[in-house]
Amino acid sequence: MSNVFNVLAFKVKTLGDPEPLLREIAVSMYTETFRRIHNDGKKADGSPIGTYSNSYLEWRRNNGYPSSPAVKLFLTGQMQQDYKVVPLSKTEYGLGYDNKFNADKADWAENGTTSASVKAHKRRTKSGETVDVSAHTRRGREGYGKIFALTPDEMDDVRAIVTAYIQRIFK
C-alpha cells in the first residue's frame, strides 16, 4: 500500500502539502480494510480469506472462541487492536502494525510459513506438569494470498477521495 501512497504523493506535490490528502486516504482505507479483513474475512480480491481446519475449529470450540470456519484473523483481538494508520514519513502513510509480532502474523497469513526444525525441549501442560518434547520438524503452512492490499473497489474509493480533494483545492 505504501506504493500507492508514494505515487499519489508524487502526483499531488504540485497541489501543495500532500500530508492532508494522504492522511485522509489512509484513515478512509483503514476503516474499509479493517471491516473487510477482520469483520468480513475477505482478501484483496474479494474472496474469503480461507477456512479453518476441522482440528483448529475443534480447538477453538474447546477453548471458548467463535466456531465459524471463516478465517477472520482473530483469536485474542490483539491484531485488530494494533491495526492502524502508521505514519512512515511526512509524505507517506501505511496501514499496519506497531507490534512486530502482529506484523509477522500478517505476513504469515499472506505468505505462509516455512518448515523448521525444533530442538528437543520441555513444555508445560495445562495441568502445570512439565513434559519432554522430542526434536521434530515443524511443517510449513501455505499462506492465504493477498489480504492487506487494496481491492479494486477500495482503489476506486482512493480515486474518489483524490478527486474530491483536488476539487476542494481548486474551488
What does this structure look like?
The chain has 171 residues and is of the alpha+beta class. The protein has one domain (2-112, 143-169). Helix content is 44%, strand content 18%. It contains 6 helices and 8 strands, in the order H-H-H-H-E-E-H-E-E-E-E-E-E-H. It has helices at residues 2-12, 19-39, 54-62, 78-82, 100-111, 152-169; strands at residues 83-89, 92-97, 112-113, 116-118, 121-124, 130-133, 136-138, 141-142. Strands 1-2 form a two-stranded antiparallel sheet. A hairpin with a 2-residue loop joins strand 1 and strand 2 (92-97). Helix 2 runs antiparallel to helix 6 (152-169). The radius of gyration is 20 Å and the shape is elongated. The two termini are 29 Å apart. The model has no long low-confidence stretch (mean pLDDT 86).
Give a short summary of the structure.
This protein is α+β, with helices and mostly antiparallel strands.
Overall radius of gyration: 20 Å
According to DSSP, the number of beta strands is 8
Q: Quick one: biggest sheet?
A: 2 strands, antiparallel
The chain-level mean pLDDT equals 86
Question: What's the tally of helices?
Answer: 6
- Which strand-content bin applies to the residues? 15-25%
Q: Helix-strand pattern, N to C?
A: HHHHEEHEEEEEEH
How many separate domains? 1
So what's the overall shape?
elongated
Low-pLDDT parts are none
| Structural class based on helices, strands and sheet pairing | alpha+beta
Strand arrangement within the widest β-sheet reads 1-2
**Distance linking N and C termini:** 29 Å
Specify the helix fraction band: 40-55%
